[in-house]
Structures are given as C-alpha cells and as structure tokens.
Amino acid sequence: MAEVISPTRMNLLQRRNQLRVAQQGVDLLKRKRDALVADFFKIVRESLAARESLSAACRQSYVALSLAKAWEGREALEAAALPAGRDILMDIEVRSLWGTRIPEVTLPEVRRPLLERGQNPAATSARAIESATNFEEMLSAILAVGATEVKLRRIGEEIKKTTRRVNVLEQVVIPRLAAETRYISSVLEQRAREDVFRLKRIKKKLEAKETGA
Questions:
Q1: N or C: which end of the chain has fewer CB within 10 A?
Q2: CA dist., res. 72 & res. 63, Å (int)
Q3: pTM confidence score
C-alpha cells in the first residue's frame, strides 16, 4: 500500500471524502433495496392470487369444453370458434421506484357478449357459449399472471443488481478506503511526531549555545 499511495494531507482528505460518499451510497442502496423488496413481496402475493385464479379457470374451462365436445362434437365447436378470433391490446405504463422503471400493465376486458364474438345465437349451443365464456375467463387470468410476472422479473433483477453493488461497496471499496485512510493518517502522525522531536532537538541545541555564550 505504501508503494502506491502518496501519504499526503490532500490524499488523506480525498480518501476520507470518498469513504463518506461510499458509506452514504451504501445507505441509499439499502433503502432502495428495502423498497424494492417490499414491492416485490406485494406483487408476489398478487401473483399467487392470480395463479390460483388461473388454475380454477383452467379447470372450469376444460370441464366445460369436454362437456360441450361430448354433446356437440368437435366439428361444431370448431365452427363456432372460427368467427371469434381477435387481437387483444394491452396498455403498458412505466412507473419509477427509486430510479427503477417498473412496467404497469392495464389488463383489457377479455370477456365479451355473445354477439361480439361473431356467433349466431340461434346456431350456437348453450354448452358452446359456456365453454367460450370460460375460456375468456381463462385468458383473462393468463394475462393477469403475465402482468405480475413481468413486474416480478424486473424488480427481482434490480434487487440482485442493487445487492451486488452493496456487497462491492461494503466488502471491497469501503474496507480499501478505510485501510488507505488509516495508512495515510499513520504516516502523517509519524511524520508529525518526528517533526516535533527534531524541533525539540533544535531548540535544545539553541538553548545550549545561548548558555555557552
């Protein structure tokens, strides 16, 4: 360390300032991480609830589909499903949490009245209609799960990144700056003691000369 660091007062002040900034950085990063973790677990609860809803919707959808298929036949269901295709658009806004950009998905209304599906009420059976309704419920649940997963992934990545930064500061940067500060302080203190000792010797010599004169 002594070979690469010049033990001057300017370097001492610089290291002390860097150490203070690094410690403040750790504090800010920890506060950011705490806020992200709180948000993360909130969304985890939302995600679990969305997954439970999806599981229930899947069970209901496939039960209804099996009954409709048994009564109406595969061809009739496929014919009923042909005019029902559409694009589903979602709005995504971005909110900032401690500088982290988190996507917020506004879920569209997936469920539709029968006429909006393009189906003929007179030619479509009640079981086919029920099956289509259940699958729209399932699609809505899938979108809800996807919306939470996107946020969880983004926040999880930022938590990992923030944790790595905290670890680097706490385990590498701060110990190094603290050690360099101690080293420079020790050298300067030693020099100060040597200067005092030399001044005392000079003073004694001067006093001795005056006494001898």
A1: C
A2: 14
A3: 0.71
CA 151 – CA 105 distance, rounded (Å): 9
**What is the number of residues in the chain?**
213
Q: How many CB atoms lie within 10 A of CB 201?
A: 10
Supply 120's token pair.
């003929």
> Residue 213: is its pLDDT beyond 60?
no
- Dist CA 163 CA 190 (whole Å): 39
Environment class of residue 15 by beta-carbon count within 10 Å: exposed (0-12), middle (13-18) or buried (19+)? buried
Q: What are phi and psi of 191, to 5 degrees?
A: -65, -40
pLDDT score, position 204: 75
Given the structure tokens 């997936």, which residue do they identify?
110
Q: Exposure pattern of 90-119 as b/e (b: 16+ CB <10 Å)?
A: eeeeeeeeeebebeebeeeebeeeeeebeb
Please, is 128 exposed, middle or buried when counting C-beta atoms within 10 Å of its C-beta (0-12, 13-18, 19+)?
buried
What would the DSSP string read from start to end of 81-140? HGGG------EEEEEEETTEEEEEEE-------GGGGT--TTTS-HHHHHHHHHHHHHHH
Q: Which domains, and CATH codes, for the chain?
A: 9-206 (1.10.287.3240)
Token pair 């599906």 is at which residue?
Answer: 117
Average pLDDT in the chain: 83
60: amino acid identity, one letter: Q
